[in-house]
Amino acid sequence: MSTTQLLIRGGRLIDPLRSLDAEGDIAIVGERIVAVGAAPEGFVPDQTLDARGLIVLPGLIDLCARLGEPGYEHEGMLETELRAALAGGVTRVVCSPDTDPVLDEPSLVEMLRWRARRIKSARVYPLGALTKGLQGERLSEMAELTRASCIGFSQADTPVADTKVLFSAMQYASTFGYKVWLRAKDAALSRGGIAASGAYAQRLGLAGVPVIAETVALLTLFELMRATGCAVHVSKLASSAGVALVRQAKAEGLPITCDVSINNLMLTDLDIGYFDARARLDPPLRQSRDRDALRAALADGTIDALCSDHTPVSSDDKTQTFADAAPGATGLELLLPVVLQFAADSGLPLVQALGCVGHRAARAAGLTPATLEVGAAAECILVDPQTRWRATPEALRSQSRLTPLSEQELPGRVRHAVIDGRVVWSAQPIAVPA
Amino acid sequence: MPRAHNPQLNKNGELRHLLTPEGLPRDVLVHILDTAQGFVSFGSREVKKVPLLRGKSVFNLFFENSTRTRTTFEIAAQRLSADVFNLDIQRSSTSKGESLLDTIANLEAMDADVFVVRHADSGAPFLIARHTPPHVHVVNAGDGRHAHPTQGLLDMYTIRHFKGDFSNLTVAIVGDIVHSRVARSAIHALTTLGAAEVRAVGPKTLAPDNLRDMGVRVCHDMAEGIRGADVIMMLRLQNERMSGALLPSAHEFNMTYGLTTERLALAKPDAIVMHPGPINRGVEIDSAVADGPRSVILDQVRFGIAVRMAVLSIVASTESPA
After folding, report:
1. What is the per-residue pLDDT for A326?
2. Closest chain A residue to the Cα of B127, Cα to Cα
């Protein structure tokens, strides 16, 4: 097969990494970008994507998603969830190790990578389990798992209760320069909690997770980082007090990065309404002052990245009492709309706002950012930023269709996704070739 | 934001489910109390029945143990001439929660008209109300820590019976507020009905300062809490709280927050003493007080039947316009 030539014509090109925001074309030969701005003289494309009225930007990276595999192979979860990722403009998915079985065996990771490659969809970057079975007792084989392509080690949403084990795990990981991904969630203080402590949970009689569950965990983590030198990524920061502590730690120079989920960025505990199980999330939705602090921190870079926290939960598992409902919400298809809405709300220029799902997120994960630059692998998406839509179950492609965000209209739909120069996904109707 | 329409009311603002006193308009609460007043004398009549619910089926669904509440609902429904079915559904840990909506669907197939629901999880009656057809009514008989609206209303009935009016009243609620659905429902009903001051009294582990957000004054000192009160509502201290991380012992609780004759002297001379029962004598309340002249604990039980009759008859007669 001869090398394909692809022309993306007439879009608004935005590349946060290069602070680029300009109209222009992108010419792609094979896997690589050969021109940005104007196509080279005599460039004859095999395929043209009409990008007029659209934004062209590097594919997004999502730092926290669950793809249902291993565990739900029979339902073809990986295929549908990776398609959903592309439909949301996410070309790279960092997946959490809390699968069934847990990603603590190199062979499981290799199988996942192999399956993902075969599907030829969004790219998968697995996090290995920090401890065997996420039990917080024995370390997993981090070097073996790294060889099997894990990009870091995580406890997913299960904190290590034993601080001595956590200390050892961080010592061991830092020996090899591995990054450890942790939730700021004190095991004892968060135990039994199903909503954020505060007036609303008190009113509904829902057991609370106090803010100190986050701050105590962060302070412990900082001490362990000082003692071990281990680099840490804090997943899904959720409180104003937590943000303040991370800001101090960064000022001190601790090797820390962090993210916030789309739910905590957009919603508050009031969105639980009358025990709406779609708003049962981990971390729980907190108060508006927390949401405001998270937004400010994402805008000023204290929070490096925005993640979808995509968690496939069946409708049966949500049709339960609030306490019994499985925590989590669909998110892959909402990451981009939430960033666009965040940019609009905060007044941040798009080229700045998009960094939190682009190069800033990639760097936090230790990955080379996607970019719109001559010579780079062509990994980009074409986005219609105007269309507003609601993430109702019918509008989503993921097998998991429930989210508290479906109550809001959000901007932005992805028209095409390109990975390595190939159009891997197109919305219907597919744009008419020129 | 997406705060749904109050699911307890139909489009005309009438009560179709009773799930919590929170968010109910004052006139809805007063209507229940007024209706109950008509039923209070029933118990002493020769014929204790009225045909208001004749031909209707009331299902008592108790996912959590209860004798007293279930019995009073049963009596209330029978006095209204309804057919009453009691189902004690112990929650099995294997089919945790899963059976809930299945159970409801099965019972609907048996043409239930009213579900009286008790469940260990806060919000369970809301879930059921959301998944039942429009002609079925749900009455919450206690959900987790969240609400116990008929208890709250019978407490209001009792207070109104003895005090006449709420506007000048100081009400002290004492004990384990944080885990108490009785306290929450009383607080919402009292603030809606316009009580002058509601106090939540207990140690910080059981009466945390953030209860202020519910419109109460939080007191950690028992003397301060009951001084000058018109009504003292003692809460039952659950066995599992009597010793552990929240309280060292029942004895120490009695020493610091128990209602004794000496402490009662701090309240208004005509103050009434209430308790939702069953009482732990010598823990939250001394026998001399529980059995004393200021205690209205047994009146609460008597009024409880009338209030439940009122609630059942009101919700069952509410249409659900499309």
Report:
1. 95
2. A321
Residue A286 domain flag: yes
Q: Are residues A125 and A68 in the same domain?
A: yes
Residue A428 to residue A416: CA distance in whole angstroms: 10
Phi/psi at A388 (5° precision): -105, 145
Q: Are residues A48 and A89 in the same domain?
A: no
Residue A434 has pLDDT above 50, yes or no: no
- Report the alpha-carbon distance of residue B4 to residue B10 in Å, rounded: 12
CA–CA separation, A386 and A401 (whole Å): 23
Residue A394 falls within a domain, yes or no? no
Say which residue the tokens 């019994």 belong to. A324
The CATH code of the domain that includes A39 is: 2.30.40.10
Encode pLDDT of B255-273 as tens digits. 999 999 999 999 999 999 9
Q: Residues of A with CB below 8 A from B95's CB? A: none
Do the Cβ atoms of A306 and A364 come closer than 8 Å? no
Q: What is the pLDDT of residue B90?
A: 67
- Which residues in chain B are contacts of A405 at CB distance < 8 A? none
| CATH label of the domain that carries residue A209 | 3.20.20.140
Name the phi and psi angles at A19, rounded to 5: 50, 35
What per-residue confidence (pLDDT) applies to B96? Answer: 53
**Cα dihedral B199, B205, B209, B210 sign:** negative
Q: Which residues of A touch B126 (CB under 8 A)?
A: 274-275
User: Are residue A41 and residue A63 in the same domain, yes or no?
Assistant: no
pLDDT in tens, B12-48: 899 999 999 999 999 999 999 999 999 998 777 877 8
Query: Which residue of B4, B123, B178 is in closest CB contact with A204?
Result: B123
Domain count, chain A: 2
Cα distance between residue A153 and residue A125, in whole Å? 11
Q: In this structure, are A330 and A411 located in the same domain?
A: no
A397 is a domain residue: no
Whether the predicted pLDDT of A429 surpasses 60 = no
Residues A229 and A253 in one domain: yes
pTM: 0.93
Mean pLDDT of B56-78: 92
Q: Which of A186, A187, A207, A188 is nearest to A197 (CA)?
A: A207
Residues A30, A66 share a domain = no
- A123 occurs within a structural domain: yes
A38 and A146 housed in the same domain: no
Same domain, residue pair A123 and A40: no
pLDDT score at A125: 98
- Using an 8 Å Cβ cutoff, are B112 and B86 in contact? no
Alpha carbon of residue A406 to chain centroid: 18
The model's pLDDT over B71-127, given as tens digits with 9 standing for 90+, comes to: 999 999 999 999 999 887 765 443 555 568 888 888 888 889 999 999 999 999 999
Parent domain of A48: 5-56+376-388+404-426
Domains of chain B listed by start with CATH number: 26-148+302-316 (3.40.50.1370), 149-301 (3.40.50.1370)
pLDDT for the residue numbered B3: 43
> Under an 8 A CB cutoff, do A323 and B144 touch?
yes
Q: Which residues of A are catalytic?
A: 309
Q: How far apart are CA B179 and CA B181, in angstroms?
A: 7
